[in-house]
Specification:
Chain B: InterPro entries: AAA+_ATPase, ABC_transporter-like_ATP-bd, ABC_transporter-like_CS, P-loop_NTPase. Chain B: Pfam families: ABC_tran. The complex is a heterodimer of chains A (350) and B (258). Chain A has 350 residues and is mainly alpha-helical. Chain A has one domain (14-345): Orthogonal Bundle (ABC transporter involved in vitamin B12 uptake, BtuC), CATH 1.10.3470. Chain A contains 15 helices and 2 strands. With 258 residues, chain B is α/β, with parallel strands linked by helices. Chain B has 9 helices and 14 strands. Chain B has helices at residues 40-47, 69-75, 91-96, 107-115, 131-145, 169-184, 196-202, 220-223, 226-233; strands spanning 2-11, 14-24, 29-33, 54-59, 62-63, 76-79, 150-151, 154-155, 157-161, 188-192, 205-210, 213-218, 237-242, 246-251. The longest helix of chain B is centred in the C-terminal third of the chain and has 16 residues, at 169-184. Chain B starts with a strand and ends in a 7-residue tail after the last strand. The chains are: A mainly alpha (350), B alpha/beta (258). Chain A binds chain B through residues 1-4, 7-8, 12-17, 100-102, 232-233, 235-237, 239-240, 242-248, 285, 289-291, 347-348, and chain B through 45, 48-50, 69-70, 72-74, 76-78, 80, 83-94, 97-98, 100, 122-125, 127-128, 145.
Amino acid sequence: MPTAEQISPATVCDGDRSATTRRIVWLLGALLAASMIVALATGSAGTSLWQALSDVLQGRELSLRDRVVLLDIRAPRVLMGCLVGAALAVSGAVLQGLFRNPLADPGIVGVSAGASLGAVGAIVLGGALVVWTVPVSAFLGAWITTILLYRVATRRGRTSVATMLLAGIALTAFAMALTGILVYVADDTQLRDFTFWTMGSLAGSTWSKIYVAGPIIAIPLLLTPFLAKGLNGLTLGEAAAGHIGIRVQRLKACAVLIVAAATGAAVAVSGGIGFVGIVVPHLLRLASGPDHRYLLINSALLGAALLVMADLICRVIIAPAELPIGIVTAVIGAPFFLWILLRQRGIVDL
Amino acid sequence: MLNVRNLTVNLGRQTILENLTLTAQVGQITAVVGPSGAGKSTLLAALTGDLSFDGSVTLNGHDIARTSTTRLAEIRAVLPQATPMSFPFTVLEVVRMGRIHKTMNNRMASEALTRVGLHGFEGRFYQELSGGEQQRVQLARVLVQVWEPVAQGSSRWLFLDEPVSSLDIGHQLQVMRIIQDFAVRGGGVVMVMHDLNLTAMCADSVILLSNKMVMHQGSPRDTFRDDLLSSAYGCKIAVNRAPEDGMFLLPQVACAAS
């Protein structure tokens, strides 16, 4: 059995962590604001946010170059980083609550692969003509995968961790195979279009993508607080959650839809950015406990802040070239996942 | 009052319970006993609305198959046999999950913990506790959910699946006292029990299940008879009287199925 220190370093003498957790909400909000400002101010173009701000304040017109760099390149990219980071982290937290174990992550259990298949399918089969089809079909891919995963991994209200992870491998492999077939029949333009899916990048962020993906990500995220009490109850098990008045079937259906919409839209605009969904909620559980009323909002804030910062690193570390952000999150996230796996080994039967 | 008429439960092609008719009164402890595999836990799951069934189950006059989850949660609480939890909740956080209404007092959680003998455990992590301590934390959660045994003129119910199975004898008696207190104050209690001696001591009514059916329902004195028990459990059991009108059971060493 793990000791208290292993489970959480937070001080919990009276068992009530809500005050600490509320402080963490403000801290993370400040962290997100700071990271957004730094990301807006930094870049290889050498445009100064402060210079531009003082120009605007003194009534001077911004130069075309500054306007393009700040408003058309950096701003949508930072905003997209927030949306995608929040979507992936909250999807991870909701999936983990749904499966009642901390190893569920949209990337690991195949939900992202399903979304990629949907997005690539839309591009190759000609649906990309309409701007909405890519995120919507990514959502459908993610939705079908999540439902399949739940059906396979959960039996009589109990989820087997091993079955969930293995089913995730199978679903990922299957979705990748179908994606491979689509790539095979794609033409050159389409190939260029989805090369970035395999990498994961925020480099293609534009305002028009934000207008499309923004609502598909933001609406589910705004709905997640309504799931919080239900997800808390679900940790007692499906039957016991029902006994305290939670409508379990409705909760599960909503959770799956929310995960599919948020992950689908995130994958459609940024490709395979892995491990955000597992690292962020896990860190937050260590810091402030597993209460979903705070975990979900904190995951959104920390996920957004982390992805904005990771994207900043990608932009500046080998400037003027860029590193795909998926590489950065995987380099940090994969060892982190192994660490969680090692800690869990003693607690749950893998 | 709990009224069960012609209850049949099928899981897949298998019939687990067949044509059960029984009742449980408020103000009493009704114990369900019987050998392993007789369908005790299945019966409890059907009574709490977890399993679909044929027949009718009414609780305080509500047909449970037609009553909403939320309404059922207001009139009855259920204690499972064991409740493993995968995230590091503190004991206080677990007990507070029993607060199904915001109007419920936050102090109840600490009071319930004191009643189950876990005062001072509020900040401990649920996952670190022993099986018996976890069981008592869950009992505290369940008590918070149905804090008043009688609310707005209608009785509330506790459904307990082997509430003392992982407890030592001192805590077994403590838990039985809490359950008795709930019944005395007007609540209804239905509990699955393994320990026949403890059942004989505490229950007001006993339902003896055997081979998918109710073999007998009545007071412990009526139900715990050598012939009934021996036939239900498939081994020789002698019921003995203790001083002061008590009763104890001794399984006979020479066990024989027939």
